[in-house]
């Protein structure tokens, strides 16, 4: 909010207060002859209006000041630089500035630009300005503090310690520190953050022992995010974190074990490589995203019994087939299932039809999304090598309404999967077959061409369209909408 908009808002608020006071009889309306009444030192005097023919000078009633809580709210919505300028010209805004609840420091919020200055000079200016601003803050009322460091100097670590000592109070709810990756500092003093509800550690070289110390003293924690923390090998979430509802462990490349004992976690996202996940049985978990090695096998074997009330599941995995039926336990409450098969080469050994086992294990499933990330087609195309489709006896899927397959190709197993869905999903509303990997088309991006659609992919997309026409269209029930997405008009001029 700029100063001009602020002045207009203050004038509007004063006008409304004058109207309310006038209705209560606290301000008399101006007399009909164009004179206005003003009260000064307890005496009433009459002055002519500015626009009166007599040209008398008008004294306007300024109205009462806005309450401090209203001014404070207005001030908290202003960008950092505008808020600082307002504090320099108004005692009310100065008081508000000293108790500003949300502060976010970055090069842009502080107006720092290079303009020929080196990285060290910018970092020095950043540190001194942040330090000056925080020292003028009273420390009361601070709820969130975000610091996106601009460069890094030898004394930045000392500044950080000082700022943490100032900011970490029982009132602080969220602290975000974004350090330069090449100079990521070990986090110190984290054991004092026990009152925070949301902790995000990104590019921080915190060890598992330090993390364990942090978590053991963070009983108020509600959300934990660990992103690119390269020194952690094990994440153990203790049962004392009873308020923790969400945790995310993203690309912490040395993590090999994630163990959760917090009883009220409702969602988590785990992304990495060879990560072993250990979950105590939890009735609260509703949303899971897994992007780890053997994610499909883990989901098949472990999740049905560990998280029986799961409603949303997204899996990102390498070419890993489900070769045997799931365990007797089922995803009785699963409504949304997304499986992405990753890998540069879509191996001929992979049978996409194996995901049918997931459908059989989720009787309440409503939406199913299958993504196949293929760069080179290695399957035999059913268009070039036609053969009878498999007839597999399956169960009725009475709640499945929407199915989408991205990266759809002329592989026989994908065609068989689409036909199976059409035959067994009795409540199906829409089947979408996207042969373009879901990438933005030329008609909607700024460059006017599809960067991801190489000639081989366009050629395979055309074969997939032929397979849809030959094997699928005739099987679509009248009540089902079939959506087929192919290359845009600028990419179609490729010979098979």
Radius of gyration: 32 Å
Q: Tell me, what's the shape?
A: elongated
Strand content: 15-25%
Separate helix tally: 12
| Strand order, largest beta sheet | 3-4-5-6-7-9-11-13-14-15-17-19-20-21
Could you list the spans in which at least 5 consecutive residues all have pLDDT below 50?
A: 29-64
Terminal CA distance: 58 Å
Tell me roughly what share of residues is in helical segments. Answer: 25-40%
Count of strand segments: 21
In this structure, how is the largest beta sheet organized? 14 strands, parallel
Mean pLDDT: 77
Class from helix and strand fractions: alpha/beta
Descriptive report:
The chain has 12 helices and 21 strands. The radius of gyration is 32 Å and the shape is elongated. Helix 2 packs across helix 4 and helix 5 (119-136) packs parallel to helix 6 (156-167). It has 496 residues and is an alpha/beta fold. The chain has helices at 3-23, 68-76, 80-89, 91-97, 119-136, 156-167, 208-216, 295-301, 303-306, 356-360, 412-424, 455-472, and strands spanning 35-40, 43-48, 102-105, 144-148, 174-178, 198-202, 223-227, 234-237, 246-250, 257-260, 267-271, 276-279, 287-291, 312-317, 336-341, 345-346, 367-372, 376-377, 402-406, 430-434, 481-485. Strands 3-4-5-6-7-9-11-13-14-15-17-19-20-21 form a 14-stranded parallel β-sheet, covered by helices on one side. The longest helix is centred in the first third of the chain and has 21 residues, at 3-23. Helices cover 27% and strands 20% of the residues. Residues 13-65 are annotated as: Disordered. Residues 65-101 form the F-box domain. InterPro entries: At1g61320/At1g61330-like, F-box-like_dom_sf, F-box_dom, LRR_At1g61320_AtMIF1, LRR_dom_sf. This is FBD domain-containing protein. Pfam families: F-box, LRR_At1g61320_AtMIF1.
